[in-house]
Amino acid sequence: MGHLSTHVLDTVAGGPAAGMKVTLLRLGAQGNLTVTERVLNADGRCDSPLLDAAAMAAGRYRLLFEVAAYFRGRGTTLPDPAFLDVVPIDFGISDPTGHYHVPLLVSPWAYSTYRGS
Which domain covers residue 15, as residue numbers? Predict the structure, then answer.
């Protein structure tokens, strides 16, 4: 059964980005719809899928990762405005029965992502 998940690693601390806020949007011609907002657990993951099998649908989506707030919360001094504030990752789900995993590796100055497994 399909589902959507994420995992965020803080490349400065070398570990999970516990406490980072993540928002999932469904993108549409009539506007964007907020599907869910989560706070990552101690492992840098959500406690349950962002989309479970029943909610999976083909379409365009956007994950918003609140990077600046996370690093400021860890005591990192950032400029105002921060170089990276909210990191958006736009992606598509073509097969609602598939497993889509969107990892993020992030620092206050850089990030990378890929389709995980």
Answer: 3-113
Instruction: Express each pLDDT in 27-64 by its tens digit.
Output: 999 999 999 999 999 999 999 999 999 999 999 999 99
CA distances from 42 to 32, 84, 107 (A): 29, 22, 17
Residue 52 belongs to a domain with what CATH number? 2.60.40.180
Model confidence, pTM: 0.96
Distances (CA, A) of 21 to 49, 51, 53: 15, 16, 23
Check if the beta carbon of residue 28 is closer than 8 Å to that of residue 44. no
> Tokens representing 60?
């365009």
| 105 beta partners | 9, 112
CA-nearest of 16, 1, 2 to 101 is 2
Q: What radius of gyration, in Å, describes the C-alpha atoms of the chain? A: 14
Domains in the chain, number: 1
Contact 106, 9 (CB under 8 A): yes
